[in-house]
Amino acid sequence: MRSALTENSEVVVFQDIEPASREHLLVIPTTHIQTVEDLTGDDIPKLKYLYSVGKVVLEKRGGDISKSRVGFHWPPYNSVDHLHLHIIYPVEEMGLSSYRQRRDDHYFYTYEYTLDWLKKQPKRTRICTAS
């Protein structure tokens, strides 16, 4: 397992084990949320926090968020059942094999698209079940 690039009580950031570009960060909340579809309108601050932590880590590593691809895989195209934000930098160095993360489509949606979608979701209490 790779070492965390940063970690606190709310989030941990790792390099992806199969990077799509020079920098491919995974920003992961410590609270279990299975997928983007499990988020509620109450989770907007959490989503913004994931983005802000990832941006700081990327900048410390010499990256520029404005030249990055930032987003989520949505079910059924998520490979791990734990929410994680991808930050991929620089976009122009992404290989053809990373096409799934290049644009909004049914494989991968940007952070902005996800945030807009989440703003339309009702605020509700999430029911957590032990697994």
Characterise this structure.
The structure is a single chain. The chain has 131 residues and is an alpha+beta fold. Helices cover 20% and strands 21% of the residues. It has a six-stranded antiparallel β-sheet. α1 packs antiparallel against α2. The radius of gyration is 14 Å and the shape is globular. About 4% of the residues have low confidence.
* Assembly level: single chain
* Portion of residues within helices: 10-25%
Structural class comes to: alpha+beta
Number of helices: 2
Integer average pLDDT: 87
Overall body shape: globular
Low-confidence stretches: 99-103
Measure the end-to-end span: 23 Å
Main beta sheet: strand number and arrangement?
Answer: 6 strands, antiparallel
Radius of gyration: 14 Å
Keywords:
single chain, 131 residues, alpha+beta, six-stranded antiparallel beta sheet, 2 helices, 21% strand
